[in-house]
Design goal:
The protein is 35% helix and 26% strand. The chain is of the alpha+beta class. The radius of gyration is 25 Å and the shape is globular.
Length: 392
C-alpha cells in the first residue's frame, strides 16, 4: 500500500512539474517564450499600430528615462493644436530667452528670432531640437510648465500609468520617466495624424535656407534612410537613458511600432529595432477592414436638425494575423450608445465597432459623428410629426 501511495505521489509531482510547465508555455506568447529579440536593450516592445496588438515584448513595463522620445508627446499636443485650429503651420512664433537657452540637441534658435510652426515642427521631428520644443510649448500653453501639465493630463487620458513628464524635451530629471509600453501607446496616438510622418521621414533638410544662419538638419533616426519602410518616429539619448528609439514602419499595408530603451550604442539600438521590424514583417500581416473616417452606417435622431447623419470610424480598423491564418471567422458588430443627448460636436463618439474572431471581441474602435448635430426646432419637429402621420 505504501509503495502505491509513493508511486502516486511521484506521478503527481511529475505531472505538476512537467505538465504545469507545458501549461505555462501554452499561455505564454511565442515571441516571449521562444525568441530573444532586442537583447542589447533594457526593455522593448513591438506592436501593430491599428489594433495595438503586442507582437513582442521584453520588460516593456520597466520604468526608465525616455530622453528625447518625450517629444512624441510634445508633437502629439502640437498636432492636436493644429487640428483644433489653435495653431497654423505658417504662423510665425517668436523665440523666448528660455527657448533659445536650451542645451542638448538644438537648432540654435536666437532670442527674438521668429520661425514658422512648420519649421519648428521640422526642427523637433528631424533634429530633436530642444529649443524648438520649448518654443512651441510656450506658444501653445503660455509657458513650458503649463504645457508639461497638458502632457501629463494627456498621458492620463491615454491610460498611461507609468509615465510622468517634467519637461517638453526629455532633458534629465529624476522624476521624468516612462516605459516602452507607454511610449508605444503615445506613438500609436500620434500616428493618427498621417501628416506627422511627412516630418519624421525627412532624412536631411535646411532651415533658414539661403540665409547667413542657414542650418542643416540631419535626422537622428538613421533607419529612416537605411531600413525600407521606416518613416519615423523619435530617437533619444542621455547619459542616464542611454540610447532609445521609438520607430515606425509601414510595409505591405501593415504599420508597426517598435520601441527599445537603454541600449549602450546607436549601433545596438538600430540593430535591435531592425530585428523587431524583421520579425514583424516575416511573421505577421494585416487586413484593413475600414479606413479612417470611412462611413460605417447612418443614424437617425428624431430630435436632430438633420434627418440622417453618417457615422464614421475614428481610426483605421484592421486585424493583425499570422501569415496563412484563416480569417473566415472574423465578423464586425456595431454597438451604438444608448444615452445620446444633443447637440453633438463633429468627432463625438456615439458607439463602437467591434471586431469579433472565433466569437471573441478582439478589438473595439470608436464610431464618431461626421458633422455637428444640433437640436431640431419646433417647426421641423412638427413637420416630421405630420409627415409620419400622413405616411401611416
Amino acid at each position: 500500500m505504501k509503495k502505491i501511495v509513493y508511486m502516486l505521489l511521484v506521478l503527481c509531482f511529475i505531472s505538476i512539474y512537467f505538465g504545469g510547465g507545458l501549461l505555462a508555455n501554452h499561455h505564454t506568447p511565442e515571441s516571449e517564450s521562444t525568441l530573444n529579440l532586442a537583447e542589447n536593450s533594457k526593455s522593448a516592445i513591438l506592436i501593430e499600430r491599428d489594433t495595438g496588438k503586442v507582437l513582442y515584448q521584453k520588460n516593456a513595463d520597466s520604468i526608465l528615462p525616455p530622453a528625447s522620445m518625450t517629444k512624441i508627446m510634445t508633437m502629439l499636443l502640437i498636432m492636436e493644436a493644429l487640428e483644433e485650429k489653435k495653431l497654423t503651420l505658417d504662423e510665425n512664433v517668436r523665440i523666448s530667452e528660455k527657448a533659445a537657452s536650451m542645451g542638448g540637441s538644438q537648432i540654435f534658435l536666437e532670442a527674438g528670432e521668429e520661425m514658422t510652426v512648420n519649421d519648428l515642427l521640422k526642427g523637433i521631428a528631424v533634429a530633436s531640437g530642444n529649443d524648438a520644443s520649448v518654443a512651441l510649448a510656450e506658444r501653445i500653453a503660455g509657458s513650458e510648465e503649463a504645457f508639461v501639465e497638458k502632457m501629463n493630463n494627456k498621458a492620463k487620458e491615454l491610460g498611461l500609468k507609468n509615465t510622468t513628464f517634467k519637461n517638453s524635451t526629455g532633458l534629465p530629471d529624476t522624476d521624468h520617466l516612462s516605459t516602452a509600453s507607454d511610449m508605444a501607446l503615445m506613438a500609436k496616438e500620434l500616428l493618427k495624424y498621417d501628416e506627422i510622418t511627412k516630418y519624421t521621414s525627412i532624412y536631411e533638410d535646411y532651415l533658414r535656407k539661403g540665409q547667413d544662419n542657414e542650418f542643416w538638419l540631419v535626422n537622428t533616426n538613421k533607419l529612416v534612410k537605411f531600413y525600407d519602410g521606416v518613416d519615423g518616429l523619435k530617437t533619444g539619448f542621455t547619459n542616464e537613458a542611454k540610447y532609445c528609439l521609438t520607430a515606425t514602419a509601414e510595409k505591405n499595408g501593415m504599420r508597426v511600432i517598435a520601441v527599445v530603451m537603454g541600449a549602450n550604442t546607436t549601433k545596438e539600438r538600430n540593430s535591435d529595432v531592425s530585428q523587431l521590424l524583421d520579425f514583424a514583417y516575416s511573421k505577421y500581416a494585416t487586413k484593413t477592414l475600414f479606413d479612417k473616417d470611412q462611413k460605417v452606417t447612418d443614424f437617425k435622431w428624431i430630435k436632430a436638425n438633420q434627418k440622417e447623419v453618417e457615422i464614421v470610424t475614428n481610426d483605421r480598423i484592421s486585424i493583425v494575423h499570422e501569415k496563412g491564418e484563416d480569417l473566415d471567422s472574423v465578423k464586425t458588430n456595431i454597438k451604438m450608445n444608448q444615452n445620446i443627448t444633443l447637440p453633438l460636436k463633429k468627432g463625438t463618439s456615439v458607439g463602437n465597432l467591434e471586431i469579433i474572431k472565433d466569437n471573441k471581441v478582439i478589438s473595439s474602435t470608436d464610431l464618431i459623428v461626421s458633422e455637428d448635430i444640433k437640436k431640431a426646432n419646433l417647426v421641423t419637429l412638427f413637420g416630421r410629426t405630420i409627415q409620419s402621420f400622413l405616411r401611416n
